[in-house]
Design goal:
Length: 140
């Protein structure tokens, strides 16, 4: 069983197209916000990771499936969990829901890189704090 991070948001006018439906690229922003808030839950931030460890977290790939549209003023929930982790990266699954309906499902591969953009080890402190949030099989 994976531990989950949860993030709530409301769809604003700026998030939608002329028809009041969330523009497809904005779901990527919603997912990013949820991942950022997950870091905050652990006592970290992107700024802190950069300053304290000289690392950045970048998206290497994202597989996203749009299942249903979200609309203006919908209240959405984003559930995120770490699927697996390696020395330099981790895979996160994220679901955007409206009530019981799954709106979007995403699988995101995130990599730690140094200031030169080269993969680097996940800082030990962060790796330890992530442990409760990923499955038992750690890829080394």
């Amino acid at each position: 069983m994976h531990e989950n991070f949860f993030h709530k948001l409301k769809v604003y006018y700026e998030d939608t197209d002329a028809g009041g439906i969330v523009y497809y690229a904005n779901y990527l922003k919603f997912l990013e916000r949820a991942r950022t808030e997950a870091l905050v839950t652990l006592g970290f931030s992107n700024k802190k990771i950069k300053e304290d460890f000289g690392s950045l977290i970048i998206v290497k790939s994202c597989n996203i499936e749009y299942k249903k549209p979200a609309h203006l003023e919908d209240k959405l929930n984003i559930r995120s969990f770490v699927k697996s982790i390696t020395k330099t990266s981790f895979f996160m699954n994220q679901f955007i829901t409206r009530g019981e309906d799954i709106i979007v499902e995403a699988k995101v591969h995130l990599v730690f890189v140094n200031n030169e953009g080269k993969p680097t080890r996940i800082p030990g402190a962060l790796f330890q704090d992530f442990k409760p949030y990923f499955c038992d099989s750690i890829k080394v």
